[in-house]
User: Fold this.
Amino acid sequence: MTEQYFSGLRIELFLTMLILALLVGKVLAIKQNPIGTLTLISVFLISSIGISFMQNESGYLFGTMFRTNSTILFEKAILLAGTFIVFMLGFEWMKKQKHFLEFCMLLLSTLLGMCFMISSGNFLMFFLGLELATIPLAALASFDLDEKKSSEAGMKLILSSAFASAILLFGISFIYGTTGSVSFDTIASAIDGNNVQKFGFICILTGFAFKISAVPFHFWTADVYEGAPVAITSYLSVVSKGAAIFVLMPVLYHAFGRMSSTYIPALILLSTVTIITGNLFALRQKSMKRFLAFSTVTQAGYLLLGITGNNTEAGASVVYFMLIYIFSNLGAFTVVSILQNRTGRDDIGVYKGLYKTNPTLSMVLLLALFSLAGIPPAAGFFGKLFLLSSAAGAGYYVAVIIASVNMVVSLYYYLNIVKMMFVDEPEITIEKLKPAVTEQISLFICCCGILVIGFIPAIYEYIYNLSAAI
Amino acid sequence: MDATQIIKTIPIEHYVILSTILFAIGVTGVLMRRNAIIIFMSIELMLNAATLLLTAFSTYRSDTPGQVFVFFIMVVAAAEVAVGLAIIVMIYRNIKSIDINVLNKLKW
Amino acid sequence: MGSSIFYFLGFVSIFTALMVILSKSPINSVLYLVITFFSIAAQFVLLNAGFLAAVLVIVYAGAIMVLFLFVVMLLNLNKEYEPHKHIYIKFAGGIAGGILLVTLIGALHGSGEIADSTLNGEASYAASTGTIQNLGKSLFSDYLLPFEISSVLFLAAMVGAVFLGKKEKSSPKVSAEKI
Assistant:
């Protein structure tokens, strides 16, 4: 009986132990040793990834509160891997902070919240997981205590997320009122799609749109991404967004399964607008972090389009895309982080002529941007291909055509940066930068991920077989 | 007073409309005001509209999940306010204003 | 009798909620919001949810609003400092809120379903729903996991708030005394 709880909650228990260990370390004022802490965290994270692949039984715990199956565990493994890379890429910055332990603790508790959120079988669990995943992030976004921009980012994040969760709750109240339950299973069988439920559903979808920064609820994204420390920006754009997308799928397919005639048009509209707007704004950004922010907005649009497929294939393509996206986006952010740490600048001008001084970094950035743009040798191409084909398989050709045209448009701005790095003359002279060991690890993992995942079809098949259980 | 009497005399729609009005006032406040603290208070209004709705539904159906949910909403709101106000105090220390227009460098 | 109390409380909460977003000084807004919370707590009492009413008064009106009041006074914001702002933004905000309200009520109007099909009605009303015993029982049996998560949430929020609120001694730009 108890074994079931331990094995079902194993990743969450691991993370909680780690958080408490860090807290005890802080309270007892053990002499701070950043490298030791990082090693501890890495060991925990990697072993959690390991145990997530062990015996995967599916089922419910605590009534219908906690849901677990092999897809959910795989999604958790993706998030854990993303967090690990974030720790690696941001360590050079983190170790200079006075509150290093608090930083790690808060970051890991948001990860814990995301794990609970993905596993939720109930709107109450979902809501608590969501809040645990966002409230500490606001504190983290304002981590540069003396930096005005950073506190601005924190405030915008907490105001917009509180606003979003209020809307979400209002929607949940209507769903509760008309179906008499907050558990996904009961909602799925009691829902009939009357006007009140439609209204509640739209509120819930709005809350989600805020979290994954879909247009028109994206206005906080660029400012928060620009102001927050790079490690947090990358975490927000990859791990946090991934978790929201992962939980959106069961909510739509499972709880609101009977309302697919309502949510599919809404999703298609949302994704088309998101892709177009994200592209238009990305075209004219001068700061690299803002540029990547709008690139993230666009990718969210593609993900939403993939979700409309509404079958196993759609679920698999979304998980597969997230897996690739983690490596591509974090690869780009690693390079941005290295350059920002060393030069203190983050505008696009810094990247002019980067190839002449730092060939390795520019090659990594090239690879990451190719993958984000979806140019064939990189894995991102296959990710987008599967997303679009899942939407096309469901017959939404107009949306797919719009998305494909936008992929071509997006080539312009991705390649523009590539051109700057390889062709243009340098604006400022950057000496040859030597990435620290942690940053090298992050660069290496990201490159491997981008190159390898696209060429091993077995990975997609593996995910497809798992997703039969969504 | 017994809630049975309330259930008999007041249709649930009136509770729905009351909380909808409160919610709309909250949304308007978020959109209209620029003072971060007042925006926060408007969000609290929105949350309370949701709690009122949940409680009303819960009583009319006489089951507990709605009221438990309300309890957790209050828990979360407390945590959110603590962090949010800490950030506001920190911002004020840095720039001596909490008008979000002063902070705003929104370039779209 | 009960219904007239409901309408009175509803009127009070709508009026004070409007005053929260319309009054110029943050202090007034805070005080109006406290009244709104009290009227909502009274609604909870009418709905036989005594425990929630008590929690609302203690946690919201007591702790959270005092925190707001404390911040407003600490930062000395009780003057009209909100700078000039374009009237059209206010106008747009008002319009947006109004449209939202109309949409909501329109969506509700076309659906009498809430009342008849899904609710039990007074016939099967159980007076024990909102009692502390009942809530406590379900909180520590069915809702045990969320309860534990909320403790982690509080821990994280506390750590976050403490480090944000800490004044950095080393930072050179703190010059509150001089101003």
Summary: Residues 50-74 of chain C form the longest helix (25 residues).
